Amino acid sequence: MPKSVLNQLPELNSVYHAPKWLKNLSKIVSFIFHPVFLPMAGVLFLFSLGLGFQSVSPDLRNKLTQLVLAIVAISTILLPLVAIPMLYSFKIISSIEMKQSKERVFPFLLTAISIFWGYILLQNFPVPVPEIMLNYILASSIATLLLAVVSVFYKISAHLTGLGGFFALILFINTYYLPDTMLFFNLTLALLALIATARLLLHEHNGLQLISGFLVGFSIVGFLLYYG
Q: Which of 15, 103, 197, 221 has the most CB atoms within 10 Å of its CB?
């Protein structure tokens, strides 16, 4: 492929201007599958497969599960979402959408710290939390921290980073735990295509930013799940 074509690849998504209804749909899809929800989605998925507290009584298992979900919800969703309007009110970011790459550094850093705090709580849980769950939360924190570092000079896709990590989780489970989870594997692939398309239609990212985001999430989560 000629060099001139390669150099134009990051700008190709700006050629097409989607109609308003399609942009609105893309915004809804982007919100529903916001990366802040993906650590919780992964933990819920693990619990749904029976990879939770199977060695205790059903009543205790339910209480422990609820407590873990509460910790994950607070550390990965509530605190990061509360931080955004606070940062906006203090003029640290100029908009809630954080369209500028450098504006994302501090929010990503706070999110990484919050997720890591949740990991510490789960690591010191009264009953041992499954290792795969701990590694997934830790990997989410590390991936978010790397997003903060990269955002200093490059607008990488947080959506695809989160989905890349979730895809690595699905692949790991399918390989080592439950081979019959191919349905979830295929659904995640379809979801990746859907989110990537939505981000392109909104002109929030170009193809290279989406691919790099996916590779960051997939590699970090995959590494910690396989070798953690």
A: 221
Tens-digit pLDDT profile for residues 111-163: 999 999 999 999 999 999 999 999 999 999 999 999 999 999 999 999 999 99
What's the pTM?
A: 0.89
Structure tokens at 121: 């709580």
Decide: 139 and 89 in contact? Cβ < 8 Å: no
What is the C-alpha separation between 34 and 172, in angstroms, rounded?
22
Q: Are 96 and 88 in contact (CB under 8 A)?
A: yes
HSE-CB at 194 with a 13 A cutoff on CA atoms is 17
Which spans in 74-130 are helix H? 79-89, 105-123
How many angstroms separate the Cα of 219 from the Cα of each of 16, 96, 152?
31, 28, 20
Token pair of 16, please? 């097409």
Alpha carbon 58 to its chain centroid, in Å, reads 30
For 148-160, letters b (16+ CB in 10 Å) and e give bebbeeebbbbbb
User: In Å, what is the CA distance from 142 to each residue of 70, 84, 115, 127?
Assistant: 21, 20, 9, 24
Q: Which residues contact 55 (CB under 8 A, 6 or more apart)?
A: none
Number of residues in the chain: 228
CA distances from 27 to 148, 175, 226 (A): 23, 34, 34
CA distance 127 to 133: 13
